[in-house]
Amino acid sequence: MIRVTLRFYGDLNDLLFGGFTGPMVQRKLPGPTSVKDLIEGCGVPHTEVDLILADDRPVDFSHLIREDQSISAYPFFNHLDIPASKRLQKPTLPHNRFLVDTNLGKLARYLRMAGFDTAYIREQADEEIISQMLGEQRALLSRDHKLLMHKVVEYGYLPRSDDPAEQFREVCRRFDLLDKIHPFSRCPNCNGVLQSVSKEDITDQLEPLTKQHFEDFSQCVDCGQIYWAGSHRRRLDPRIKELFNRT
Questions:
Q1: Fewer CB within a 10 Å sphere, N or C end of the chain?
Q2: Cβ(68)–Cβ(62) under 8 Å?
Q3: How far apart (Å, rounded) are the C-alpha atoms in residues 12 and 40?
Q4: What per-residue confidence (pLDDT) applies to 231?
Q5: Same domain assignment for residues 46 and 112
Q6: What is this structure's pTM?
């Protein structure tokens, strides 16, 4: 048996499986084990770990655990001064495209409203989700620990909050998206791109009060839904509205 001590920092402790109580965790391993498998065996997906120290020495996920080793796991910190060569996560995405797992539907809607290409999936097997993620080069957002543990998930995040507006803020902070928000440029229903459309071209599709009070309209190129700056924008969560108004 190989004995090892782990210490989890920050909100990684919130991700531990029920049988573990952080921040210190003692494990006994039957044989050689990678630090990735060790950490994920405690419930923390590799997508959430930005720095690992083995006896105070930085290592990557392939590091094999030795007897009586002390492992420290740190979450992603936007402002923590870690040399890039030691970090295990990339701070930004090569493509700001997302694949959002079931139970995060409102987050998907907020991301689309912010202008980010966001696919939303329901009732699909893990293999199908991973295949779509790879094929469309999307970052995976999920609250399914085990889904994010798939080795091929290079860009992913597990939102901590139960509140969709806070989840959106988390994702923006994690992937440095705040200056990339383009409000109301995508259809929140189907993810299609919105294009400006003249009032005259759609006047027969508008309600009388809408025609009376609004002049500027956009339409989804995919589903045809028409949008304008109506009450749905005024009712938008103030935290989301604050981020949108920064752009």
A1: N
A2: no
A3: 11
A4: 63
A5: no
A6: 0.92
